[in-house]
Amino acid sequence: MIKTVIIEDEKPASRKLERMLNEFPEIEVVAKIESVEEGVKWFSENEHPQLIFSDIVLGDGLSFDIFEKVPTKGFIIYTTAFDQYTLKAFKLNSIDYLLKPILDEDLAGAIEKFKSFLPSDSSVNSQEIKQLIKKDKTTLSRILVKIGYNLKIVQTHEVSCFFSENKIVYLQTQERTYPSDFTLDELDDILDEKKFFRVNRQFIINSDYIKNIHTSPYYKVDLEFQPQEEITVSRDRVKDFKDWLVG
């Protein structure tokens, strides 16, 4: 049996996920946890399960806090309505990421993915896990931004570029400029590399919004929507930039 724990602060969502998992005869739910405090206590006092299904945003914090205080060798599948936390999730033993509402086929796929990561002797090799995760990297498709006291979801395909200014990273859309909680280095690692390219230390651009490319006296890109500052391609990235354009 695959010992499994559910971390979810919404009781209906927790019950629904448990019912879905009960459809898999090889899985046994051994605990349901509703808070960071409860999670730290449970993982400190009990044998860790092989598989953990965890919401990210809990009533008293983020579930990441549990595993930063009590490291686990178990595999984690994160569940949430927002995929803004993908990068941090994949740094904490995550093997998959399910967006709510969870679909039966997505859950089944995540469980099969978990099984594929287990060697035949069921021992866990952390380096092998990290390599497998890198090969199957999830790309960021939505970003949660804050506007005053409101939150807004922006689809990454609506973003013409990301840029840094005064140590803050912004994203540019047709509508306006929004601040984000990411760094450019983080974004460079989780954006779709077929669509986005880091042209210099300050800008990541979206190929769908390229309007013109100047090549003399240096490479400069004009986007349909961009901040006032011009966007140039660093000399050491020109070759990769041209390969990206045609690849």
TrEMBL record:
Positions of the Response regulatory domain: 3-115
GO MF: DNA binding
Domain HTH LytTR-type: 143-247
InterPro entries in the record: CheY-like_superfamily, LytR-like, LytTR_DNA-bd_dom, Sig_transdc_resp-reg_receiver
UniProt modified residues of type 4-aspartylphosphate: 55
Keyword DNA-binding annotated: yes
Coiled coil: none
Keyword Phosphoprotein attached: yes
SMART domains documented for this protein: LytTR, REC
Pfam families in the record: LytTR, Response_reg
Entries under PROSITE patterns matching the protein: HTH_LYTTR, RESPONSE_REGULATORY
Top-level taxon of origin: Bacteria
Gene3D superfamilies, per database record: 3.40.50.2300, LytTr DNA-binding domain
Keywords noted in UniProt: DNA-binding, Phosphoprotein
Protein name as it appears in the record: DNA-binding LytR/AlgR family response regulator
Record organism: Chryseobacterium geocarposphaerae
